[in-house]
User: Fold these one by one.
Assistant:
Number 1:
Amino acid sequence: MTDIKILIATHKTWEMPSESIYLPVQVGSKGKDCLGYQRDDEGENISELNPYFSELTALYWAWKNLDTDYLGLVHYRRYFTKPHYSKKATIDERVMDKHILDSLLQEDVALVPKKRNYYIETLKSHYEHTLDGTHLEVARSIINELTPEYLSAFDSVMHQRGGYMYNMFIMSKPLSNQYCQWLFPILFELFERIGFDEMTAFEQRYPGRVSELLFNVWLENNNIQIREIPYHYEDKINWFKKGSSFLKAKFFGKKYTKSF
């Protein structure tokens, strides 16, 4: 029987799916009271880096400590979902289940959320307009030093107008291990070079944001087969505020100061 574990990164108690394939992970748990979920400060871990690496501290914990056939990563407010469900569906009726996943999973295929398209922006220009573009410059320099064979894919991805975002995926554990072995040395070096002095708590989360783009670089460089599956954001999104903030960033140089 195929063993699947989908990590749900969370820092608070929340309504969670009941199916056993889902594993809520309390991120940034070091020094915190236990919420009753798996903690990310057990075994080999980087729990203390959660204010900067966000949900990636759960991924690192699973990379180093969790034995499973397939590994997934989602967020307590953002899940992969079934193709169809009613508006009144419970969380268990909405989220992807093992029965469906068994028909989708393959060792060399990555399940990812539907592509997010920016249309009037490239991934690079969107990051530069909304955040601090030097993060990408430093990341490119590090990739050139550590894994120069990825440089062409990095440049290609930066000029694309869409990508697989949110640090969400489901793939075989060997494939996710390969991704982690490439990703984390780059992020650690990025964090070492840029630091976090004089940044707000929002700005300090840049390693997690850069990793969303690097996931696409890894997919492209390794010619990973991709299958898009639907996802759902549990909270209501203020599309007017989100859209107006995007336009202010692009045309008036007003950087993002919080998540939307």
Note: The chain has one domain: 4-252.
Number 2:
Amino acid sequence: MPTARVFGVGRLRSLPLFTRFLAVAIAIFWVAGLPPAWGVRAWAALVPDKISFKTAYRLSTFPLVHLNIIHAAINMVALTPLMERFENEHGTLTTISLFFGPLTTLPALLYLLIERGVLRSNSIVMGSSIWDIFVARLLDTYLV
């Protein structure tokens, strides 16, 4: 029976580059979002009514910000082993281009289309749960 890997500093150092960067970036964005005066969550969240050419960066930044520490921790715990395996299989540059390209932008655009066109509401989206689902599905479909 396989055992769970123990998480420590050595384990963090052995993670691939982008996986390590992503875990640190999520933690930094969470800490930066603590003071409400900075408005990091409001700046990076995917808000349908605030999307324009000037704020198109929101299509790529919404997975990096989280609602609270529990949300960030659960996403990091779920994403880190999946992203590590994906990055080891496909390489760092491919992973970066996929995760800040079509695997983030296309679901964001689809969400905006459904939210504005069908539901006619303005719900805010934050968190990397979309990446958890995509990586788990990609690993399940193509690598196993």
Note: The chain has a mean pLDDT of 86.
